[in-house]
Amino acid sequence: MCIAVFIWxxxxxxxxxxxxxxxxxxxxxxxxxxxxxDGEIVGGRDGRAGGTWLACTKDGKSQKSPKxxxxxxxxxADQYNGFNxxxxxxxxxxxxxxxxxxxxxxxxxxEVAPGIHVLSNAKLDTPWPKAQRLRQSFEDxxxxxxxxxxxxxxITEKLMTDTTKDDDEQELPHIYPPAFEYLLSAIFVExxxxxxxxxxxxxSAVALKTSGAVSLYERSLEDNVWKEKxxxxxxxxxxxxxxxxD
Length: 246
What we know:
Elements: E1 3-8, E2 16-25, E3 30-35, E4 41-46, E5 55-57, H1 66-75, E6 84-89, E7 94-99, E8 108-111, E9 115-119, H2 129-144, H3 152-159, H4 178-184, E10 190-193, E11 196-208, E12 213-222, E13 225-235, E14 241-243
Antiparallel strand pairs: 1-2, 1-9, 2-11, 3-4, 4-5, 6-7, 7-8, 10-11, 11-12, 12-13, 13-14
């Protein structure tokens, strides 16, 4: 049960700052944070289905506007399992939330308002206990660093490795069996299942500064060893990207 928290257009230094835990089976093939083959997209990648949980383009936008992309996706949303998707154009500073959850409601597109938001397996900003805990912790850190830079390594270590679980069964979302939901109620998930070890496979952060500097940080589990990587690049005002580091 992945979880993300982010601030959007509400910080003097970071117009966009996001933290994300990806939860998955430990034996699922995964490619860690890197530039993709064409050199235009950077992010992690699922080795089985080819998708991604977090990725950015080199120039901060795609060939389609968020609205165009969202409308095309909604038209074929019934072909997919339940999903939550955030799409942002970092040049026009436009962000949309797209979901087909719950299935009975049909797919929807929502413009994301400035502020702090949390996303897990339910709709955006659903007040599950783990989401509320993460939101409050994130808000506390952001407020303390309102005029200062934030260390990606420090904020992810402080907020995204929290193994606190919810003891009140009534507070759980009642999607999975209670014993499994109890394990999933932590921000950092660790669980043994009949299909193998399941839990947080990677901890990621992406930060956009007002200068156009973008920083992606990932701590990922590879062969039972946690490895770290940071990629920095720059989105120019002319909407062209150039790498700051190789």
